[in-house]
Design a protein that fits this description.
The chain is an alpha/beta fold. Helix 1 packs parallel to helix 2, helix 2 packs across helix 4 and helix 4 packs parallel to helix 5. Strands 1-2-5-6-7 form a 5-stranded parallel sheet. It contains 9 helices and 7 strands; from the N terminus they run H-E-H-E-H-H-E-E-E-H-E-H-E-H-H-H.
């Protein structure tokens, strides 16, 4: 499930009926044998020591198949639901840098960990058992310059939305992300994108289905709430794409 708490309203109440991601991932992992199972955690909603323990638990349930998607938190209504203010864009990444650094320390430390940061502090923290993997695979989706640097520094997989539609531009954008990680941090990244397809018996039929989904059945109120939040607070969508 998506890491959602309130949804985006509209006539469909988009994303309002969603299971809690870590609990759901534990259940799916216990019910399967092969796939890596993902869960999303928003940094302001969970202490890294708790998230580290949860992730290690799920990793053991599946014998080393857990992947954690870490989100710095951009949805103001949801972050404020937890009694926390939405930090400024760059400060969110500073907090998330401490969050993920502490989590990795807990996953790998042989001895108790003392950590004194601006946002997180622990004294004598020790995680046992440690994950089955050296540490579970980590995923992040960041599009701004500060977010791109954060993702390249810490993560194994990055989700990057294309800013243009032609294949050559998409390929250049994705390779640029990988090259940045190599040059700045000596790390290799897997870069993922999303693509939406509407399949018809002909171009005309596909266009008809598109018009039905978007113009006849589209929940524009929910879409506007989502896109406004993404553009103002997330900064993952470039202005020219928003317009």
């Amino acid at each position: 499930p998506l890491g959602r708490w309130l949804g985006f309203g509209g006539k469909t109440a988009f994303n309002s009926r969603v299971f809690e991601a870590m609990t759901f991932s534990a259940a799916v992992t216990a019910s399967t044998r092969y796939p890596s199972v993902f869960a999303t955690v928003h940094v302001p909603t969970m202490h890294p020591a708790l998230a580290a323990k949860q992730a290690a638990t799920i990793d053991h349930v599946g014998g080393g198949r857990f992947t954690l998607n870490v989100v710095t938190g951009w949805n103001r209504r949801e972050i404020e639901l937890f009694g926390s203010p939405l930090l400024g864009h760059e400060e969110r990444y500073a907090a998330a840098d401490e969050w993920i650094t502490l989590m990795k320390l807990l996953w790998s430390a042989e001895e108790a960990v003392d950590f004194e940061g601006r946002y997180y502090r622990v004294k004598g923290a020790l995680l046992r058992p440690r994950p089955v993997q050296p540490y579970p695979a980590l995923m992040n989706a960041s599009g701004s310059p500060v977010g791109k640097r954060f993702a390249a520094k810490h993560f194994d997989i990055v989700f990057s939305g294309p800013t243009d539609r032609d294949p050559a531009s998409v390929a250049e954008q994705m390779e640029g992300y990988r090259a940045f990680a190599r040059q700045e941090f000596g790390r290799e990244l897997k870069v993922w994108i999303s693509a939406y397809m509407i399949i018809g018996d002909s171009e005309e039929d596909a266009q008809r289905q598109f018009d039905h989904c978007v113009h006849e059945k589209g929940d524009w109120e929910a879409a506007d709430t989502f896109m406004t939040g993404m553009g103002v607070d997330s900064k993952s969508i470039p202005p020219h794409v928003m317009s």
